[in-house]
Amino acid sequence: MIDSVHFIFFVFLGMLSLVLVMIIIVIIYSIYQYRFSIRISGWSEIINKKITKVIVYEEDGEPADKDFEKANKNPLFRNLFLQKLVDSEKKFSGAAKDTIKHLFEQYKLQDDAFKKLSQKKPHLIARGIQELTAMNVQDSLPEISKFLAHASPQVYQEAQYTLVNFKGFEGLHYLDTIQSVLSEWQQLRLLGSITHIPENSDHLINGWLKSSNDSVTIFTLKLIRKFQILSVYSMVAELMAHSSTEVIVETVQTLLSLENSSTITYLIEAYPNQPIEVQFEILKAIKSSGDKSCIGFLKEQLLYTPESALKVCAAEVLFSLGQQEFLEQIAQDETSSEELINIIKHALQEKI
Question: Where are the transmembrane segments (predicted)?
Fold first, then answer.
């Protein structure tokens, strides 16, 4: 019995000691975090002061700030300095932007950015690529190109963006062989970095339209829309037979944007064999075109299509084309189904 009491006492003592140790560790860590945050705050003030003097007051030629020069020997300070320069670069233009890049070069921060490219953690590599891109370090392109096939999306997407940012349309060559998916956000970034399409680029664009990677095809369709590349209209039209619904939806939008007189007729002919998502897009295209020659087709969809959602869309398009009287007649017709009457009333109530 006494042995059991002793055992319980020692177990309790051990647990109490463990709890105390954990409390001490938490306190020490909290103190460390607090001191570190104070240190970062102080560094931020020093860096902001430096950037402000150089940009606003143009005091780059005055004696070096001793606090700044001392802190600059710390790798963590340099990393924070680099981060703030990159953030500042996004906010300024013209002479101020050039001044920021001068600071970047003056303190040889490209060395710190390059070091991140040799790290194993994806977020560090991606950060290094972002920094070199923001500071327009063209010499980094060969090294960054190696990351196009990296396993991490965070890394290879930054590498893709850098190539296009530096080289424009020519930087899209990796689309020939890319296996990874281009996210919608990545597509928007790439489109924003391309300012013009070189002449005689149709063969490249046609090749991307035929890509087995659907995201490449979709991106190319958006590229065609942005720059109104009329010469590839027939190639785009062929994509109405594509196996991907998403690709066909983008194709409808692209065909409509290219403003060919035969587009609406072609879309109506393709309509019956398309999935419902594409049929919706075709009805929306008719509405955007304002083509009244489609009224007969729309009435047919309203009266006979089995899909209620398509009936609603057809009713709304008919209303937009000035067919309010026809819709009211159908709604008042005693032979019309209750569903059809409700659909038309809904369409009229929404639009009036």
Answer: 6-32
**Interval 15-67: pLDDT, tens:** 777 777 787 777 777 776 666 667 777 778 888 888 888 777 665 545 557 77
Tens of pLDDT, residue by residue over 119-162, are 999 999 999 999 999 999 999 999 999 999 899 999 999 999 99
Query: What is the model's pTM?
Result: 0.81
Nearest-5° Cα angle at 164, 197 to 174: 95
The type of residue at 32 is: Y
Reported for 77-81, long-range contacts at CB under 8 A and 24+ positions apart, including other chains, are 77/43, 77/47, 78/107, 78/109, 78/112, 79/112, 80/40, 80/43, 80/44, 80/47, 81/47, 81/107, 81/109
Asked if the model's pLDDT at residue 94 lies above 90, the reply is: no
Domain boundary assignment for the chain: 261-352
Please state, in angstroms and rounded to a whole number, the distance separating the CA atoms of residues 92 and 347: 49
Buried/exposed 237-260: b ≥16 CB within 10 Å, e otherwise: bebbebeeeebbbbbbbbbbbbeb
Instruction: Choose among 271, 198, 207: nearest CA to 229.
Output: 198
pLDDT, residue 216, reads 97
- Quote the CA–CA distance of 45 and 41 in Å, as a whole number: 6
Cβ contacts of 161 within 8 Å, gap of 6 or more: 133, 186, 189, 190, 193
Q: Identify the DSSP state of 238.
A: G
| Amino acid letter, 290 | G
Cα(53)–Cα(275) distance, rounded to whole angstroms? 61
Q: Please state, in angstroms and rounded to a whole number, the distance separating the CA atoms of residues 178 and 213.
A: 8
Contact 113, 128 (CB under 8 A): yes
Contact call for residues 220 and 205 (beta carbons, < 8 A)? yes
Q: pLDDT value at position 233?
A: 95
- In Å, what is the CA distance from 348 to each residue of 285, 289, 297, 324? 20, 21, 19, 8
